[in-house]
């Protein structure tokens, strides 16, 4: 009798562990994706009608650096941008929220390191996101190819960044967040976008860091860059 | 153990089956709502930030 009870308890423990794996790797993604979709919808609702431009401009206007608007720092937990990364699929539309606490990363995907700059600012605009679980927003970070575009949309317009390189570092390397990544104290000249996630996939012994450099800016009135025009229109329609 | 519990649920067979489903659902709800979120803090998969 006792042996049977112990056996049944052990089986139960095994089933619960399997359930935990399924919950962690699958269900947290379902939950987080739903919250992120909602955050994107709210972001678009706040924008109003402005972003829905039917004919995107073919040539992005080359804006001189001092014309690029830069958002003010946001309160923790506020979603202030939406990011599009065509390399991750044409439905990759993710919110960007201030803060890198678990509350932000587990629910809303990409979090902005509050001590780093905002999109378009000279220096480093750094984001963190999960490689696995809770939306797995940066699962494909290793598939980026130099030249890939990363688009950041704020209430002001579209910032186009060009992916440059990836670096794999140990988790304590906070210098990747410096205005000039890995060179703390150096005066920045470029506008960098930094993505950080865990590495390897399904592990966390290291961090994978992807850097992109800003190439151009288009205001909302100019319409989205051609590569993401259809995607933006679709999202805006879904939010309307 | 589970056979013992099942035998001691009240009512006819169909009612005991419903009881069993309810109990399993309740156990799952407790796991998903409290146990798993707590357990996930020990999962290395959720460390994505630098410097923590």
UniProtKB/TrEMBL annotation, chain A:
SUPFAM superfamilies: Sortase (SSF63817). The keyword DNA repair does not apply. Pfam families: Sortase. InterPro entries: Sortase (IPR005754), Sortase_Class_E (IPR053465), Sortase_dom-sf (IPR023365), Sortase_E (IPR042003). The keyword Membrane applies. The chain crosses the membrane at residues 9-27. Keywords: Hydrolase, Membrane, Transmembrane, Transmembrane helix. It comes from the Bacteria. This is Class E sortase. It comes from Arthrobacter parietis.
